[in-house]
Amino acid sequence: MAISINLRKIITTALLILAVAASSVFLWEKFGLSLSAEQSNPDNGEASNQNRIYNSSDYPLINESVTANLDKHFIINFTPLRDRLFEIQKEYPQKVYAYFLYLNNGSWIGINERENFTAASTVKVPLAMAFYKAVEDGKIDPNTPYIVRDEDLDVDFGELYKVAAGVNITGKEATRIMLESSDNTAKNVVARIMNDTGIADPLDSVYSFFGWTFDVGETPGYIKINLRTLSNMFIALYNARYNSIEHSQLILEYLSKTPFDDKIAAGLPKAVVVSHKVGIADSNQTFSDCGIVYAPNRHYVLCLGSNGGNEAAANKYMAQVSKEVYSYVINN
């Protein structure tokens, strides 16, 4: 009888232990935890994330780039780079502008980034965005031939004016030439196509989308811009927020083929792709360049400007800053 009672106690104790263990496993699994030795110690910190494969669906509240083991491409501290840009600023007598945005996590630094300066040809980027928005809305067929008129011709920048009036060109081709070569005649053609379609102010919807406002009763003017607004246009293209993915890709592709490589591109390795747009206003000595630098796994927006010196001085400043930024991003 004593043996039977002791056996019953042993069996009861064993069942209780199993029940507690099963309950613990249930609770751990319910809250998405793991009993593995590697994860049971939360103090392992960053090292515990390395060389592991995670399923991002198991961690819906964690940035997917972390669970995909891309966190090594996150850079949080840009203070040393900011300090270096201020040092470079002191080396140049003209007024300079700079805005850098790290696209992996949104960290940014700037110098006079909110101050307006002459937009010049940078306005061709929002014009292209507006054109393809009209295409997406069914208002324009980009492949319809358009006859170049005398009033479209502009000898100040580009070569298209040399073909003379009367030549047929599609809106798509005009947009490509406008972005790749910064051609003024092509810009006039694109704007006139939109005007003929009934879009009197092609840039209004683009600037409104980015919060660019004008005073009541004021006639909208797009002569001035600042680096923050300009950079937002590239961010919208990068994330396909204003235009479709297909048209955002097309615009960025055109901008990656520009021959103007004496500013931002001058500070980059030849193999690095940069989709950018220059602005040149010789009359008031204002020069700018803004775009997306596709550094391997570490894309960023860089917008630079110079006012009060010649183009050679502006180019030197922008190339130096571009080289400094690229080096910091790649080596940190």
Report how far apart the termini are: 75 Å
How many H/I helical runs? Answer: 10
% residues in beta strands = 5-15%
Q: Give the full name of the CATH homologous superfamily of the largest domain.
A: DD-peptidase/beta-lactamase superfamily
Strand runs, count: 9
Mean pLDDT: 83
What is the second-level CATH architecture of the largest domain? 3-Layer(aba) Sandwich
Largest sheet: 5 strands, antiparallel
Q: How many separate domains? A: 3
Radius of gyration, whole Å: 28 Å
Strand order of the largest sheet: 2-1-9-8-7
CATH topology type of the largest domain: Beta-lactamase
Question: In which range does the helix fraction lie?
Answer: 25-40%
Write structural notes for this entry.
There is one protein chain. The chain is 39% helix and 14% strand. By secondary structure, it is of the alpha+beta class. The protein has 3 domains: 7-36; 69-119 and 223-332, DD-peptidase/beta-lactamase superfamily (Beta-lactamase, 3-Layer(aba) Sandwich), CATH 3.40.710; 122-217, Beta-lactamase. It has a 5-stranded antiparallel β-sheet with strand order 2-1-9-8-7, sandwiched between helices. It has a two-stranded antiparallel sheet with strand order 3-6. A two-stranded antiparallel ribbon has the order 4-5. A hairpin with a 5-residue loop joins β1 (95-102) and β2 (108-111). It starts with a helix and ends with a helix.
